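2024-03-11 09:14:02 DEBUG pipeline.ingest accepted 1 chain
2024-03-11 09:14:02 DEBUG pipeline.ingest length=175
2024-03-11 09:14:03 DEBUG pipeline.predict start
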Amino acid sequence: MVKDEEEKKKIEEQKKATEELCKIIKDTLGEKVEKVLSGERLSSSPCVIVTGEFGWTANMERIMKAQALRSSGMGSYMSSKKTLEINPTHPIINELRKKVEKDKNDKTVKDLIWLLFETSLLTSGFSLDEPTTFAARIHRMIKLGLSIDETEEQVTQDEDMPELEGESNEMEKVD
């Protein structure tokens, strides 16, 4: 029984430590999620999207969006109420929490929050509203991880560009 009390106390401390992070995540994601909470059921994933007990599953939401006779006013009705559940023991969440404590308005933090949300959508079976934005965020994070400077990238792209076919002075003879 003592071990259970210690575990409960530890879980409560972790939830309390991530309260501010949950608030920042909710503020960043806005209407995309109904709520953000710290859970204890996740083990290897930093976060997951869950729907209510009587809410639509990812598959049902996809089916309803694909209906030919749906009206444009059904948009809010057709999307399920999503809850983002974060894992307070995951290293990604811990580092994100530390970054938030240092600077709440860090653009990298907001990008990371959106990336976590969108990857959670994908792993939970939902579809992305804007896959190109998701791809751009991933590319920006890869550049950051590889320490690629934006101006340096532009210069190397210009040097690697091949000459356009119509730019040469010699004309191709066509028979």
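2024-03-11 09:14:41 DEBUG pipeline.report Helices lie at 2-17, 19-29, 58-65, 75-78, 91-102, 107-123, 131-145, 150-160.
2024-03-11 09:14:41 DEBUG pipeline.predict end
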